[in-house]
Design brief:
487 residues; alpha+beta; four-stranded antiparallel beta sheet; 10 strands; transmembrane helix; Transglut_i_TM
Length: 487
Amino acid sequence: MTLYRHVQFEVPWFPGEKRQIWSIEAKVEFDAKGESVEAVLALPLTQRGYTRIHESTASLAYGLSFVNDQDNPRAIWTKRTADGHQEMYYKVDFLVDPKAADIYQPKMPDTPFTEYPEPYFTAANHLSKQAEEVSADAYSFTRELIKALTGDTASKSQNTGLILDYKPKNRLVVDLLNNADVPARIVRGLQLEDGRRRQGITEYIQVFKDENDWQIFDLATGIQGRPDNTLLWEYNGNSLLEVVGGKDSQVTFSMLLVEQSAQSAVAPKISEADFLNFSIDSLPLEEQALFKGILLIPIGVLIVVLLRVLVGLKTSGTFMPVLIAMAFMQTSLMTGLIGFLLVVGTGLVIRGYLSHLNLLLVSRISAVIITVIGIISIFSVMSFKVGLTEGLKITFFPMIILSWTIERMSVLWEEEGPKEVVMQGGGSLLVAVLAFLAMNNEYVRHLTFNFMGIQFIVLGVILILGNYTGYRLLELRRFKPLADKEG
């Protein structure tokens, strides 16, 4: 589960890791004609190398709707009446994600035959036959065709110069490929460069071998494959921008590369519904805050097991130190230690008086509970009056547990003496402090909250320790006389 969360959703192992995010803003501009307006902008989706994590828009008094169609995702702005220059903005954030893959599969276009008037038709056929003779498949044919229309090669051919005067290069390449029964169309991508403003879109040729095999070709160089740092914005051969009720429309792009904490950057991926994605992030924030503390308890329990089973420390109550450590996390360590000693010390004095009354157990415990509440209330009021606001945090201590601790220590004092009270009380505080240090560690908090599998790992370690039957570390003191005798 832990590895799956890290690999599939890129949840980082360490807190504080950073991820790169491309923040891209598309600015749509046009002049409205004083009638109803509809502006449709093609939108990009998650694709190879980039995961879309957030999008937003800004426009003045326009209605807005998103069409989340994988074949043609788009944003549609509408207004009953508009006049003059209009501007609207679309902003999208893409996480740089090497594991991201295309979530769309473009549909293979038809191959309509396009006839040109003479002499352009003859020139186009001659150019196409030359490229076909030195090619082996659709992709190599495309490369040779673009090469014949580019640079020095183009300047040496009269046919090339003639046909380029008739039609732009991008449309010409698509027509020649379709005439040769090679499915092709124009798609549009955005060259990502940090800090660029008012950048235009770049057109590429998308060529299909079959429905599941397609490639992108650079019109300027004929290079096959999607260029590095290129985001395909429109990949189905549809219009980038369509405006009804306006003229002189255009789209320009601004972009910025920013770094963000990995936890925040991958949050949209983490929240995806998945059978194996056992994540606290899917819960409401109130429950998340609750579980953030609860999931640390197994770490405190592990510390108790280690110190009791392997070291042999004695504590007042098996898991009382874990609850005290949880209180320390709310109060801070120093404030918690002072508060704990004050409450328990005062409670022991009062409990000593109650023992002379020969009360029944239930009544005695009830009296101790009320006494503990009174002690905490008095200390809180006194600390507030003298300006020590830290003293108010003493209320985070578990009052029932403190009451039982006072009762157990009092009985222990009567039966075993003060030495045993100091040993168990000191052991409890030592275990509570060590548990607090482990539970309050930033790395531990990050792992327990983000990887549910850690709970099973801790459980496995505890089950292994549960089979330990050897000597505890503190028991080895019994063999010291033997060691001295041999010496």
